[in-house]
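Reading a protein record of the kind used here takes little practice once its layout is understood. Each number in the token line that follows is a code from a learned vocabulary of backbone shapes. One such record is shown here in full, so that the layout can be seen directly:
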Amino acid sequence: MSKPKENTTQKISKMFDAYADEDNFVASLDGLSKLGDDIGIDALEDVRILVLMWKMQAKAKPAQINRDEYVKGCIKLGVDSIEKMKKLLPSLDPGFLEHSEFVDFYEFVFQFNREGTHRSLDRSLVAELMRLVLKNRVDKKKLHSVVDFLENHSNVTHITLDQWKQFLSFMNEVHDLKRDYDEDGAWPVIIDEYVDYTLSKKGETENK
């Protein structure tokens, strides 16, 4: 790939200025919210802003993108203006991602939403992110059931990255709890608790 022209890099860097924090080096949540507004999406509720950050490889620190990542990301995506970025929106639908790409994106979502050096996410945030990211990727009833469990019935306060990834595997692999779920398998305790809760709830319903 040929080296981009200097004026292209400068143009993208100037574009970043509109979203940079006071230190002029990173765009954090306020800047990303403004970026979302400029390209026509709600950065708090539209999963495409997360896909955009993933494609730009905003991985240096959680919940922000730095100038270098933004410039390199825009060059990689072939955009040097907000108008061109708007044209990317249809391609930012996570439904277009292959399974291996989605798994990588799904892990990125967890890391991007961490707070500072914290290594886990509040379970209520995890529920919100699952609802946002998995909406068209897994069975709707299963997703609703898992989210309801996390929001209303789990005693766990925080979710680790491993638990986050295991929930995706669980929703993809276990289609029937009684038939497919191996309680002696390597699933984390929180998924065992979800299964126990769900089967108990189902038994209560059937006995009514």
User: Anything to note?
Assistant: The mean pLDDT is 94. Strands lie at 26-27, 65-66, 120-122, 158-160.
